[in-house]
Amino acid sequence: MPHLIVELSQGFEPSIEKGLLTKLNEGLFRSGEFTHSRDIKSRIHRADNSLIGLSADDGELFVVAHLMIMSGRDDATKRSLVQSVLDTLVAHFTGQYDTVQFAVNLQELSPFYQKITV
Predict the structure, then answer these.
(1) Residues 62-76: tens digit of each pLDDT
(2) Which of 21, 98, 112, 113 is most buried by its number of CB atoms within 10 A?
C-alpha cells in the first residue's frame, strides 16, 4: 500500500510518461510512511476521451492523481503525501504545455481491504 493512479487527459505526448512513476514512487517512499518501496503501486491511465469546458478549443489539459492509502494517518501526514504527489506532478509537466490543471485526491481504503501475495 499505497496505490496511486494518475489520469492524463488526451493531448499529452506519450513520451511525457517517461520517468513520472519513478519520481512519484520515490517521493512517496521518502515520506517514511511506507516500509518497503515495493509496497507502492502506481500506474498511468490515459483518458482518451476527455474534455475540459465545452470544446477542444478551450485548449487545456488535466492531470488527476488518486492516492489510496490505509486509514490511520493524521491530517498532517495525509496533507504532506498529497503535497508530495502534487509537487512532483507540477515539476514534471511544467514548461512543456501551455495550461495544465492538476488535482490530487486522497482516499482512505475500507477497513475490509485485503491484499495477498502468492
Answers:
(1) 999 999 999 999 999
(2) 21
